[in-house]
Amino acid sequence: MDLYKIARKLDGLQTVSTIAKSLNVKARTAINYAWLLRKNGYLASIQNRRVRLYRISPIRKKVTGYSLYELLNENSRVKIIVKEDYFIHSKKKPSIEEILVRCIMTGEFRIVLASLDLFNKVKNWPRLKFFADKYKSGRKIGALYDVARKIIRVRRMDKRTREGLLRNGKEKYIIKPFRSKHFKDVEKEWNVYIPFNVQDLGVYKE
Predict the structure, then answer these.
(1) Which of 41, 159, 175, 206 is buried most, with the most CB atoms less than 10 Å from its CB?
(2) pLDDT above 90 for 104
(3) Rounded to whole angstroms, how far apart are CA atoms 13 and 56?
(4) Distance of CA 163 to the CA centre of its chain
């Protein structure tokens, strides 16, 4: 795949539909091309209320930072494809704890679901609490940790971190307006609504 040639062909303002038409591909494939072009510095998004616009140029712009979703795909068995990337501008590669909290705070169903696998790689609970405090998401993090424990093997959270997470955060919805038919024990303890039902977690058994 020669992204430079694709960028030359698509040079100018584009939408998903015009990319699909120009490359003679389906919309999903056009979204994937847009993601690759952005990742390699050929594409930039333009704000528009009616339709998502992309400015594409064969002249590459240097992409700095770390792609949150690429980091998530590296660390989770549940893979994601997104329309828009999210870059963490940092000289140092973000920790698992930071990636986990940032993913949960996106409020995107598939991303939050995929992030459950990261609990298995958390090694520094105080650091997890630090980022949970920073984003005021302690109860969300704690509740999803308890859900993750039901489906995958995770490291045991220390009592001090758990109590700290219980005191942090006021928002009841992890993903509006989703509420679980299951996990009522977790919802009661953490006072948040779990966005998943048992069948949603089946992806971890595939």
Answers:
(1) 175
(2) yes
(3) 6
(4) 26
In this structure, CATH architecture of domain 3-56: Orthogonal Bundle (1.10)
86: pLDDT strictly greater than 80: no
Q: State pLDDT tens for residues 33-64.
A: 988 888 888 888 776 567 778 889 888 776 66
C-alpha–C-alpha distance, residues 53 and 155, integer Å: 43
CA gap 112, 76 in Å, rounded: 11
Going by their DSSP bridges, the two strands 66-67 and 53-56 should be labelled as unpaired
Per the structure block, which two tokens stand in for 176? Answer: 């509006």
User: Among the residues of the chain, which ranges form H helices?
Assistant: 3-9, 16-23, 27-39, 68-75, 96-105, 109-115, 125-134, 138-149, 159-166, 184-190
Every domain of the chain with CATH number 1.10.10.10 lies at: 3-56
- Distance, in Å, from the CA atom of 147 to the CA atom of 145, rounded to the nearest integer, reads 5
CA atoms of 92 and 196, how far apart (whole Å): 33
- For residue 23 the two structure tokens come to 């490359």
- DSSP-assigned beta bridge partners for residue 44: 55
Tokens of 152: 């995958």
Query: Could you give the C-alpha distances from 114 to 62, 100, 146, 148, in angstroms and in order?
Result: 28, 10, 15, 11
pLDDT tens per residue across span 133-171 = 999 999 999 999 999 999 998 989 999 999 999 999 888
Residue 169 and residue 147: Cα distance in Å, rounded? 18
